Amino acid sequence: MSGRSMPPLAAVRVFEAAARHLSFTKAGEELGMTQAAVSYQIKLIEERVGLKLFLRRPRGLVLTDAGERLRPVLTEAFDLIAAGFGQIMTDENALLHISVVPTFSAAWLAPRIGFFQMQHPTIGVRMVATRDVVDFRRDEVDVAIRAGRGPWPGLVQHRLFATGFTPILAPSLLERLGPLNKPADLLNAPLLDPHDVWWPLWFAAAGISGFDPANRPFSDMGDQHVVARAAVAGHGIAILTPVFHEEALRDGSLVQPFELVADDQHFYWLCYAESRRNVPKIRAFRDWMLTELAASPPPLTGFANRSDAPD
């Protein structure tokens, strides 16, 4: 034999275990094989190398000179292989790569991710806030949080909550505008990002006609958490997902004038590759996130289409 020419690796592994234990029975127990299957693999490797590797004695097995020379070499080789796999598995499970849309990252995940790390101190976290669509076959990403309708083939998907939206503004602006008694009062109010597709959807859900964004100056601040900052500053009324701004709504820096929360049948999802569903760090993050959401689920009150509200 030359180069990489060698007996089948399965047979080599069986020989190493049998040589270490000096027992076909114990080797079979270690490898999950029958004694007969171990004996067959030993016969196969002996025929391949053309040498006897074991001698059957009344008191048990003994290694031939060839077997004695081969055993430590193979044991060291398998130890190195096991160490190599152990190292990459340790490294792999030491850092969780999360790709998440910016608003979800800033408003929901960032304030809570420390609790995950407290529960799993051996798992590091690398969180990338981006709108880019993840390709799990190409990108170095373990889990992704995205908004959409799904499903996506090849991915495990956990529906988190609906992308509900409603007008929200600062108390200072409300004081300047005067009372907002009905949704139609917003037609003449200053709106942030009035060309956002959520505005006409919300007005339609409220039964209001006559909203025309073409009559308003164009603005696009990009991500929802940026628009929320402009709303807090009193620059206009924003169309936002209330669950992302619970703290501001609780402390009074933002107010929600109407109960109605409309939705566009999109949801936030936790996704990861089907082939990696049992990776420990992915399971740990999934379980933590679903438990966290179950402990304080987003409110359903006011959804325009209750059949589309999250479970």
Low-confidence stretches: 300-311
Q: Kindly state the percentage of residues in helix.
A: 40-55%
What Rg, in angstroms, do the CA atoms define? 31 Å
User: Mean pLDDT, nearest integer?
Assistant: 86
CA-based shape: rod-shaped
CATH superfamily of the largest domain: Periplasmic binding protein-like II
**Class derived from helix and strand content:** alpha/beta
How far apart, in Å, are the first and last alpha carbons?
Answer: 63 Å
Strand content: 15-25%
Give me the CATH architecture of the largest domain, please: 3-Layer(aba) Sandwich
CATH class of the largest domain: Alpha Beta
Strand element count: 9
How many domains in all? 3
Number of helices: 11
- SSE string: HHHEEHEHHEEEEHHHEHEH
User: How do the strands of the widest beta sheet line up side by side?
Assistant: 4-3-5-9-6
Attribute tags:
311 residues; five-stranded mixed β-sheet; WH_DNA-bd_sf; 11 helices; transcription regulation; D-Maltodextrin-Binding Protein, domain 2; Arc Repressor Mutant, subunit A; DNA-binding; 9 strands; sequence-specific DNA binding; two-stranded antiparallel sheet; LysR-type_TF_proteobact-type; alpha/beta
Outline the structure in words.
- The chain is α/β, with parallel strands linked by helices.
- The protein folds into three domains: 9-92, Winged helix-like DNA-binding domain superfamily/Winged helix DNA-binding domain (Arc Repressor Mutant, subunit A), CATH 1.10.10; 98-160 and 265-294, Periplasmic binding protein-like II (D-Maltodextrin-Binding Protein, domain 2); 166-251, D-Maltodextrin-Binding Protein, domain 2.
- 41% of the residues lie in helices and 15% in strands.
- The protein is built from eleven helices and nine strands.
- It has helices spanning 9-21, 24-31, 35-49, 65-94, 102-109, 113-119, 171-177, 198-205, 224-232, 246-251, 280-295, and strands at 54-57, 60-63, 95-100, 124-129, 143-148, 155-162, 166-168, 238-240, 267-273.
- A five-stranded mixed beta sheet has the order 4-3-5-9-6. A two-stranded antiparallel sheet has the order 1-2.
- The chain is rod-shaped.
- Residues 300-311 have low confidence and may be disordered.
